[in-house]
Write a structure and sequence with these properties.
Layout lengths: L1 H19 L12 E10 L2 E12 L2 E8 L2 E4 L1 E5 L4 E8 L2 E10 L2 E8 L2 E9 L2
Antiparallel strand pairs: 1-2, 1-9, 2-3, 3-4, 5-6, 6-7, 7-8, 8-9
Length: about 120
């Protein structure tokens, strides 16, 4: 009888604990949208423009827009820590965009060889 009582208590405790626990899994972050950016300290001065990211079934697509030009991004990766990497070409140079999203803000760099140029962006509404 004690054996059945112990088994019943274990089953009841398992049910109580499983219903009492809330899931702590958060929804995945989405960087999709329009972002106003500022890149500073480049050899050609500072740049202001727009970063546009779109979420697809296969990840992200996007582009940078500044001074009337649109520059497509490729190999866009947003990891589980909201770190972004993307490749693009500008004035014949292969460049990389790297940084991290925190809510509606982005902080990172444009990487050109061994040089890094600070980039900050804010999501526009």
């Amino acid at each position: 009888m004690l054996k059945y009582f112990t088994l019943l208590m274990v089953v009841l405790m398992t049910v109580v604990v499983s219903f009492g626990c809330k899931s702590t899994k958060q929804a995945a972050y989405s960087a999709a949208g329009n972002w106003k950016f500022h890149v500073s300290n480049t050899p050609n001065g500072d740049y202001d423009g727009k970063l546009v990211l779109s979420k697809t079934d296969n990840g992200y697509t996007g582009y940078l827009e500044a001074d009337g030009s649109q520059i497509n991004l490729s190999n866009i990766v947003l990891d589980e820590e909201n770190k972004l990497t993307a490749d693009f070409s500008f004035s014949g140079n292969d460049l990389k965009l790297k940084g991290i999203f925190t809510g509606d803000a982005f902080a990172g760099f444009i990487v050109a060889g061994y040089d890094n140029y600070p980039m900050a962006a804010e999501r526009t509404k």
